[in-house]
Structure formats: C-alpha cells, structure tokens
C-alpha cells in the first residue's frame, strides 16, 4: 500500500509541475519535415478509422515521421506508410505502462497528440510522464496536461471526422473537409481473394447487395427472422445477394442463407473489408464497416443504436446513406416494416441509378 501511495504522490507532483510548465508555454507549435510526432488512439476499430483523415493530411502536407500508439484491437488500421512510419501496440499492465513511458521518451518526439474525445486515465498518465516539447489535446477536463489545445466541437452537431480535423490547426494544415475522407487500403492478397470469391459465386454480373449481419456485439444483431425477410424482399429484384458476417456469427448467417445465398466471412478485418469495394449497395448495423464503405463511396443503409447519448451518429463521411436510429440499447424493437418503409425508397433510387449508368 505504501508503494502505491508513493507512486501516487509522485504522479501528483509531476502533474503539478507539468501544468505549471504548460501554462507558461504558449508559443504556436512549429512542426516540420524533421519533426517526430506520436499520435495516441486506443480502443476500437472505428475509433482508429476516424483519425485516418488527419494522419494522412499530416503525412502528405508535412512529411514528418509519424508514430501511432494504438490498441491491440485497432493497430492494423494504421499499417500503411501513407499514415504512419511505426506503430506501438499498447497492452495493459503496470509494468507495461512504465516500459511504454520509457519507450516513448526514447523516441524523443517533438509532439505527442491525444486524439481521444473523452478523458482517458491511461492516456493522461502517459501525457503526464512522457517528455515532449509539445503536447496536443482537445479542450476537455484534462486540458491542463497539454501545451496546446483545440476546441472540442459539439459532438451533437459535428461529425466525428470534422472534430478530429480540428487538430490540423496546430499543424498549420490547409484542410478542405469536403475532400477529406477515411483512408483504408485492404492488402493486395485480401483484394484478390475477394475478387476470386465473386468470380466463383456469381457467374452473372449483376447489381450486388451486401447484407452485413455482424456488429461486434449481440445488442446490434437484428435477428435471424428480420434478415430472412430482408433477403426475401430483395430477392424480388434482378440482383445478386451476399451475406457478410464475422466467423462467430456464421451459424446465424447459415440460418438466414438457407443454402441459397453465398456467405462471405473472414478471420481478419482486412480480408473482410476487401469485399466492400466490390459491392453496389450495403446494409449494415456496424459503424466500422460504415467507415470503410465511405472510403469507396459505397451507398449504404445503416441500423444505429444511439443509446443514452446526444452525439451525432457515426454516419459515412462520403457515401450516400439512410438509416434507422433507435434510442434503445438494442435493435430488437426495430420492426421489419420500419426498416422496409425507409430502406426500399432509398435502395430503389440507388438501384435504378446504377441501372441507368450501365
């Protein structure tokens, strides 16, 4: 217990010294091609994807060396030289934090950027104990930890990507939100595998609708019966249908398919997402796939759980879309008729537009 108390006191003392130092450091940051920047973005895949427009602009406009501290859940999103030069994967443990602080300090970064919307105790600890001339963050409760901050745009009015692009002001970036977009490139092997799947399962080339049933947790599973009805209604059109799912949802997908519709499932996110650019339309309850669809400007219809929050939904940034939003904690009370009445007018517009283009 005494050891923990001593560590806590040291943390508070370091925090007070950092706050005092940061309060005095008000000059505008100077970031150049020779600079080394560490971006911190932990948590889920979607959290990583929405930061990619900012990282890509920093890389393109400045050309500095970029490190990303990511989680074991999302690090692969940044595995592209157009985004980052090196990725550090954070793994939880006290000893891990100490080793991580030492590692970060050895990098001698010119700036450390906390990309989190909310206050994270882990990230705050890292910011307090790591050394860097500049420390960037949003104006939030932990703002005194940073040397420089940007406004935290109202999440009920501004898309999450626009909120992330606010950091561009500290890098003196010339940003055009109209041209910015999520950046994600599936690997060549994943792309070729997805193309081969389409070639083998759809000898007749038609409008291809992907129905993704997986969303990371059971709360956002819409139910076998609902998906069966959706498949039945869409089968009246002259098109090809494809079910997409994660491996753990294969049993549900098999029930929905009833051996009539191909099922595409892959163990990695990269392999799974390689199918998205091959679709003409996507139906999904999963926001990370929504962001990937935005990369390729694929129209989609989404099912959203907006429970206990006023934040804007994480809608696709660059895709035509429509959606059903529930303020309940699950999708179970969204009826098929609710979805049908909103989905099909939107779907038919896309379907007929594609038919006209051909």
Strand content: 15-25%
Number of domains: 2
**Main β-sheet, spatial strand arrangement:** 3-2-1-4-5-6
Percentage of helical residues? 25-40%
* Shape designation: elongated
Query: Tally of extended strands?
Result: 12
CATH architecture of the largest domain: 3-Layer(aba) Sandwich
Q: Give the helix/strand class.
A: alpha/beta
Number of helices: 12
CATH topology of the largest domain: Rossmann fold
Please, what is the CATH homologous superfamily of the largest domain? Glycogen Phosphorylase B
Low-pLDDT residue intervals, each spanning 5 or more residues:
none
What is the string of helix and strand elements? HEHHEEHEHEEHHEHEHEHEHEEH
Radius of gyration: 23 Å
Spatial separation of the terminal alpha carbons: 72 Å
- Assembly of the depicted chains: single chain
> What does the average pLDDT come to?
92
CATH domain class name of the largest domain: Alpha Beta
Largest sheet: 6 strands, parallel
Could you walk me through the main structural features you see in this protein, from its secondary elements to its overall organization?
The protein is α/β, with parallel strands linked by helices. The protein folds into 2 domains: 18-171, 3-Layer(aba) Sandwich (Rossmann fold); 188-357, Glycogen Phosphorylase B (Rossmann fold, 3-Layer(aba) Sandwich), CATH 3.40.50. The chain has 12 helices and 12 strands. The chain has helices spanning 2-24, 45-49, 52-61, 94-107, 121-129, 160-165, 188-201, 224-234, 250-257, 269-273, 287-295, 336-357; strands at 36-41, 65-71, 86-90, 111-114, 134-138, 148-150, 208-212, 240-244, 263-264, 281-284, 300-305, 321-326. A 6-stranded parallel sheet has the order 3-2-1-4-5-6, with helices on one face. The chain has a 6-stranded parallel sheet with strand order 9-8-7-10-11-12, with helices on both faces. Strand 10, helix 11 (287-295) and strand 11 (300-305) form a beta-alpha-beta unit. Helix 8 (224-234) packs across helix 9 (250-257). The longest helix has 23 residues, at 2-24. The radius of gyration is 23 Å and the shape is elongated. The mean pLDDT is 92.
